[in-house]
Design goal:
Length: about 260
């Protein structure tokens, strides 16, 4: 995304981008943006790949409890309203839960079947909205912070709706709020945070195939692409396989 004269955002073709942010979103986002800028120095790679209009699904890696704020910042920079699949326990927190419902976020019960959240997300996509789905379902358990084994929700949603599935990798936000920590690191210097938006993921080989084996294969390929993007940010080669909590005596959810 670039800025046209007068500060108006335009897309890569020089067309003015639709701004779907209302006064409410601007009001609640300004203090969040001010906080984010106070703790980080951000590099946004290929942010123009977040669609200016129409439905989309972002599939990012998950390093820190601050990730949703970072990804919300990314979506908001594209002049879109961010919506997330979020753990249902957050919706039971006074004030926060009411805010999440009011802003159209989608609760996910970790012990549930997963159908209701995907149905709600499908409706948002049918309405032309963008949805952020963390394929890992929780903070990565990988000791070196690579993406771990993915869950099928993002792929199932993309196959069911036809919305573009866009992998995203980011690195550095864990220096502001480390994994599982409750203590922000806000003292100078500001932390360097890099976010890279990938090309829409090609689900062609699995189009029309909803069997478990096909969805698992597509999810594995998606996680490999997210790991590849992350490897570029870190200047490292990602491991060939994904960390699997069940193979290391760990629960899929919660801190090990």
């Amino acid at each position: 995304m670039v800025d046209a004269p007068g500060g108006r955002a335009v897309d890569a073709g020089g067309r003015r981008r639709r701004d779907e942010r209302g006064a409410f979103w601007i009001a609640i986002t300004r203090p969040i943006e001010a906080f984010m800028r106070s703790v980080g120095r951000y590099e946004w790679r290929h942010e123009e790949r977040v669609p200016a209009t129409g439905a989309f699904i972002l599939a990012p890696n998950h390093l820190s409890e601050l990730d949703p704020v970072l990804l919300g910042f990314l979506v908001y920079r594209a002049r879109r309203i961010p919506r997330f699949l979020a753990k249902a326990s957050l919706f039971r927190v006074p004030v926060l839960g009411r805010f999440l419902r009011f802003t159209g976020q989608i609760p996910v019960e970790r012990a549930g079947s997963g159908r209701e959240p995907l149905t709600a997300a499908s409706q948002l996509i049918a309405d032309g909205a963008g949805v952020v789905v963390y394929p890992e379902g929780t903070l990565t358990r990988d000791p070196d912070l690579w993406p771990m084994r993915g869950k099928p929700g993002a792929v199932r949603l993309a196959l069911a709706t036809g919305a573009p599935l866009i992998p995203v990798a980011h690195w550095g936000i864990q220096a502001v709020l480390p994994r599982w920590s409750k203590r922000l690191r806000v003292l100078p210097p500001r932390k360097r945070v890099v976010v890279s938006v990938g090309e829409p993921f090609d689900l062609g080989p699995w189009e029309g195939r909803t069997d478990a084996a096909s969805v698992t294969a597509a999810t594995d390929a998606l996680m490999a692409e997210i790991a590849r993007l992350l490897g570029e940010l870190r200047g490292e080669t990602p491991p060939p396989g994904r960390w699997d909590p069940s193979q290391h005596g760990q629960s899929e959810f919660g801190r090990p």
